[in-house]
Amino acid sequence: DFLFFWGAVFLVTTTLVAFLKKENQELIPAKEETKGITDTYRLLFSIIKMPAVLTFCLLILTSKVGFSAADAVTGLKLVEEGVPKEHLALLAVPMVPLQIILPLVISKYTAGPQPLNTFYKAMPYRLLLGLEFAFLVWWAPKVKHEGGFPVYYYAVVVLSYALHQITLYSMYVAIMAFNAKVSDPLIGGTYMTLLNTVSNLGGNWPSTVALWLVDPLTVKECAGAQGHTCATAEAAEV
C-alpha cells in the first residue's frame, strides 16, 4: 500500500509537470554540446585524461572509504541488537526537515572561490561520528530491557543521526558546488555529469565492499558446541 500510494503520487506529479511546465521561449537555445554518442564519449575521455581531473577523481573515489562501514552497516547492526526496524524508520522522520534546510544553509559557505574547504572541514567530524555509531551499536545491548529501549537511547541515536546528516550534506553540497564551478560552461552538462557520476561511484563502492566484509571480519563464538566454529555463515547455521 505504501509503495502503491507513492507510485501514484509520482505518476500524478510527473504527469502534471509534463503538461503544465512550459519552456522559456524567450531564451535563445544553446548550441548542442556534441553531435552524438561517439562525440560525447570522445569528449569524456579527453576530460578524464586531464591531470587535474584524474587527481580529483582519485580523491572522490577514495574519500568515503573511512566512513563507509559506519554509513552502511550501523542500521543493520542496530536491528541485529534488537532495535525495531519500525522505530529506526520513524527516527528518519525528524531528519526530513533537516535535510531540506541543510543544503540552503551550507550553500552559503560553498558559494565562494574554494567550495572544497567545507568538504575538508566536515571530513574529520564525519570520521569521528563513525566511532560514535560503533558506540551506539555496542551500547544497545547494555541498555536494552524487557520493554525495549529507553527514550534516552533513542534521543542519542536521533542526535547522532542529525550530526551525521550535517557532515554528510556539508560534503555533498561542497562536491556539487565544486563540480559546478570547475565545469567548462561550453560542455557543462557533459562535464558535470562525469564528475557527479564519479562522486556517486565514490560513495557506493566503499559501502558495497563494507557490507561484503561484515561476515569475514566479524568474530563469533559458539556457546554450548565444543569444537565448532562460527566463523562462516554455514558453520553458524549448523
UniProtKB/TrEMBL annotation:
Protein name: ACATN protein
Record flagged with keyword Transmembrane helix: yes
Organism from which the protein derives: Origma solitaria
Transmembrane segment boundaries: 6-22, 43-67, 87-111, 123-140, 152-175
Keywords: Membrane, Transmembrane, Transmembrane helix
GO terms classed as biological process: acetyl-CoA transmembrane transport
SUPFAM superfamilies xrefs: MFS general substrate transporter (SSF103473)
GO molecular function: acetyl-CoA transmembrane transporter activity
Coiled coil stretches, renumbered: none
Membrane topology: Multi-pass membrane protein
Main localization category: membrane
GO cellular component: membrane
Short name of one Pfam family: Acatn
Keyword Membrane attributed: yes
Record's subcellular location: Membrane
